[in-house]
Write a structure and sequence with these properties.
Length: 709
């Protein structure tokens, strides 16, 4: 046997070993963040995910009877056995409690009405009466017995029932925290599986955590991808068996395609930290395009007669690869990944099909010359005019979807659980934001601004007193004659029989400004993150006030739609520019390749665009819809080159039809995906392929092809 017969399989083995050695598969990710455009906002989103207090697990048991109470306590015990979960207690951090006592008068606001109507004797008599007559121990705030200061309160959905947390008198609830070390998908999956095992059998038990989206969406995508890959591979295998009827060529072709995918994965894993799983599926689909190069060499007897160089196939390949190279300049990681993967895969496959396969001895199958005798009378100019009309009609309906989250899984099941807890806990109108500042004092100051603006919002760090607030409040306190109030308080309390020095701590406040460091805040149980030159904290602000709080330059909205809307507008512009350049490049290559039959080839370009644009009647164009239009144009232009070539014959038509079927099996199958990103690719690809099929059937053929019939 010749050495060339073993090169193909040897390359596959080497590439497989390299992929395993460099652990390239570990770079594949199902997270939505992987496809987000690179920007500071993407980095900030990653920083937000580091806050541990944002990762909670909510457990509720419907009903407030003894059975429900017993059930939730049993579940609490079982949940606490899960590695990484801790029960959130109702008591306050001891250090934070002490801090709030020391800086009570700086944290709380002055009740001006109580101060103006202050009657110390009457207030002390009320306190004495309550102490004597109360059936339970009566609490007196010895720092503020006259209730001059009032603590800011917020609406609370939680209450106690039978000494256990309950929500709105309808269910018992427990809240768990994830420990700081729990920060990977595998750890999330372990916790998720353990919780599901304990709670899935009872409809009265509801459990939700934001980390469940990571787990469920990841699994849905993986399951979807596996089914698509298996289904697509099966169809392609059957298709190739029927078409080629040459086992040796089929095996070698599958080896080449597998090698091209492995090489692309290996190369991309070095370029990108994380590689979207969508790229791998797209890569498998793009490998079916490379089959085109094999079909045209094989159908024109290049593998048996060793004819040498096939110019049409080379021009088709270089046009497709060139278009991908132009599109790779778009500053969107997902598009870059798709382009790089495709370029490597197509180049590798072409080199093998064009230069290695002629050195391997393949039996040439003889094809019938009367297989494809389609209706063929429509002139290209008529199809071009029709395409222009369709484009003009579509333009009015054309608009872009700027919400990247629409490319992810629409997890209705999990959204229902999230809505349940949001409504029960009065959180349905809130959204997470990041607050950033150059110093901790400035950060506290900005958080307190938001707390004053939105008093019922959850802003953890706003409990602290910043330098500016401290100095302002100190001046205010000094203007109130607390020494006189305290002297009269001591005098009247002695007269009423209170112990000596019973109110010795009353109205004594700290005179030293609090000093904050990251460690001090950690001791207070308050999370803080240092990011570049900024300190970051987080808050939950009202959704209906997004226009208001967005005006603050220190607030970073964490809504994916809002965060990346501006980026997407820029990316759409880039894609339009580079897509336009790729179309010009394709037109030039068409003109250079087909010359006298340029009009025929142009029809394959413009008719596809017009049919794909009709999607605008039914939905908004997302970034992948727009991108895949240029991809399909760059892929299918091969057909335009072949069918406009001066060397066109029946074997070319046969090869084009086989290539079209192969491409449809690779890309069209994505239309059945549950993942919006893959569905978007499959939808546009299917329309583009159907457009080519229509033209192959009805478009008037060149004179030299007609004479050969």
């Amino acid at each position: 046997m010749k050495i060339s017969n073993y090169i193909n399989i040897s390359l596959l083995i080497v590439l497989a070993l390299l992929v395993v050695y460099f652990n390239s598969f570990s770079s594949i990710s199902t997270e939505l963040q992987t496809i987000l455009p690179n920007s500071e906002k993407k980095e900030l989103l990653k920083e937000f995910n580091k806050f541990q207090n944002t990762k909670k697990v909510f457990l509720s048991v419907e009903g407030l009877d003894n059975n429900s109470l017993k059930k939730i306590k049993e579940l609490e015990d079982e949940f606490l056995k899960i590695d990484g979960l801790t029960l959130e207690k109702s008591y306050t951090n001891k250090n934070l409690k002490r801090y709030k006592q020391e800086y009570k008068f700086f944290i709380e606001s002055i009740d001006k009405d109580a101060l103006e109507k202050l009657n110390i004797s009457k207030k002390l008599e009320e306190l004495k009466s309550n102490l004597i007559n109360s059936s339970f121990s009566f609490f007196i705030d010895k720092k503020d017995p006259l209730d001059i200061f009032k603590e800011k309160t917020s609406l609370k959905a939680l209450s106690l029932k039978n000494n256990h947390l309950s929500i709105k008198d309808s269910a018992y609830i427990s809240i768990f925290n994830l420990e700081g070390r729990v920060n990977s998908i595998s750890q999330y999956e372990s916790i998720y599986d353990a919780i599901e095992k304990l709670s899935s059998s009872d409809k009265n038990i509801k459990v939700f955590s934001p980390i469940f989206y990571f787990v469920e969406n990841s699994r849905i995508i993986k399951d979807d991808v596996n089914k698509i890959v298996i289904f697509s591979t099966t169809i392609l295998l059957l298709l190739y068996l029927v078409i080629l009827k040459n086992l040796k060529l089929l095996v070698n072709t599958l080896i080449t395609l597998s090698s091209s995918i492995l090489l692309s994965l290996l190369v991309c894993s070095f370029i990108f930290d994380k590689l979207s799983i969508f790229v791998v599926v797209f890569g498998i689909s793009i490998s079916t395009v490379a089959i085109d190069y094999m079909f045209h060499h094989y159908m024109h007897n290049y593998y048996e007669e060793k004819k040498g160089f096939n110019k049409d196939v080379f021009l088709g390949m270089i046009t497709t690869v060139g278009a991908f190279a132009i599109l790779s300049f778009v500053s969107f990681d997902l598009i870059k990944q798709l382009c790089y993967f495709s370029i490597v895969s197509l180049l590798f496959s072409y080199i093998q099909f064009a230069f290695l396969y002629p050195k391997i001895n393949f039996y040439q199958k003889r094809f019938s010359t009367n297989t494809y005798n389609f209706y063929s009378k429509v002139k290209p100019i008529y199809m071009i005019l029709l395409a222009i009309v369709l484009l003009l009609i579509s333009i009015d309906k054309f608009y872009f979807d700027l919400d990247l989250k629409n490319l992810d899984i629409n997890n209705v099941h999990l959204k229902e659980k999230e809505d349940y807890f949001n409504k029960k806990l009065n959180l349905q109108k809130n959204m997470p934001v990041l607050i950033k500042a150059k110093s901790i004092d400035k950060l506290i100051e900005k958080d307190r601004v938001l707390k004053n603006e939105y008093p019922n919002s959850y802003i953890p760090i706003s409990i602290l007193v910043g330098e500016k607030d401290f100095l302002n409040k100190k001046v205010l306190l000094e203007n109130i004659n607390f020494e006189k109030i305290k002297n009269k308080l001591d005098e009247k309390s002695s007269e009423l029989g209170f112990k000596v020095n019973y109110f010795k701590d009353a109205y004594v406040y700290k005179v030293d400004k609090p000093i904050y460091t990251k460690d001090i805040l950690s001791d207070l149980g308050i999370e803080l993150i240092k990011y570049k030159d900024f300190y970051l904290s987080y808050a939950n602000l009202p959704k209906d006030k997004v226009a208001e709080f967005s005006k603050y330059d220190f607030v970073e909205n964490l809504s994916i739609k809002t965060m990346f809307e501006q980026n997407l507008v820029s990316i759409y512009s880039e894609l339009f520019i580079y897509g336009g350049i790729s179309v010009i490049f394709i037109l030039l290559m068409l003109f250079f390749s087909t010359k006298g039959n340029f009009l025929i080839s142009l029809t394959y370009l413009i008719f596809q665009i017009s049919l794909m644009a009709l999607v605008s009647f039914f939905m908004a164009f997302n970034i992948l819809h727009f991108f895949i239009i240029f991809v399909i144009l760059s892929i299918s232009i091969d057909f335009g080159i072949y069918l406009g070539s001066s060397s066109l014959d029946k074997n070319t038509y046969t090869a084009v039809l086989y290539s079209l079927l192969s491409t449809f099996a690779g890309f069209g199958i994505l239309i059945f995906s549950k993942t919006n990103a893959l569905y978007s690719i499959g939808l546009i690809a299917s329309i583009g392929i159907v457009a080519i099929a229509i033209l192959i059937i009805i478009l008037k053929r060149p004179f030299y092809y007609s004479k050969s019939i």
